[in-house]
UniProtKB/TrEMBL annotation:
This is Xylose isomerase-like TIM barrel domain-containing protein. It comes from the Bacteria. Pfam families: AP_endonuc_2 (PF01261). It comes from Croceicoccus ponticola. Residues 34-271 form the Xylose isomerase-like TIM barrel domain.
Amino acid sequence: MSEKLHAANWTHAGDIRPEPGRLASPLPLRDRIEAGARAGFIGMGFIFDDITSALHQHSATELRAMLADNGIEQVELEALADWFVVGADPCTDALRLAEAVGATRVKAIGAFEGDVQPEDMIDGFARACDRFAGIGANVVIELMKASNLNTLEKGLAVVTGAGRANGGLLIDSMHVVRCGISLDAIAAMPSGALLAIELDGVPEGPPDPDIWADMVDHRLQPDEGSFDNAALVRAARAAGFNGPWGVEIVARAHRALPLDEAVRRSAAAMRAVLART
């Protein structure tokens, strides 16, 4: 039986460089969904802004049918921010959008400024998980070098402290390398803590000194670069994770590709990696 594949948002978002306040894809949602299906993905991710825009053109029923008709079983929305801020309510609008498309997962991000400690985020994460549990969606925190949750230990402190079955971590190849997370540590994660994974190729040599450019301009396909993604898959399996296997390519070269070529290349690279495991 072939492995199930998930295409994270930037893998099929087209020619759009992630910038604060400028995240929506220039491509029609239907085109992206159909391209993902043709490449063999059963899961796809989208930015909240993409769903907001799509709801101006389609009803929620039409969006769900668009996904179902193309065999997209898993829908991820990103990125939930400020869930840890006392008095903030980022979940209400996000929940509305997640319900509209039948989202199965919401990607959350940590703090990018200020002195926010992991222990101060536990209650907020528990509340966010409870909000999305009602629609059967997981909430996953993506560890990032640029955020306050930049080590495996910090991320685990939040998700284990919250103690919610639908709450866990998302690990991404680039961030594994940039955050200095060992594969042994991933393999030893508590059962149920690892709920999502994204593979991408990490370029050889030192990182771009501009941390944002390093994140969004240089990633390679999962079967390229200096990092052993097959070993990461094996470590994830040891931690109890067994797919769907995600791919997230945020890179200048990838953005320049036509949509179908971009998603086909990423799907082929994922299959090449999984074949080595």
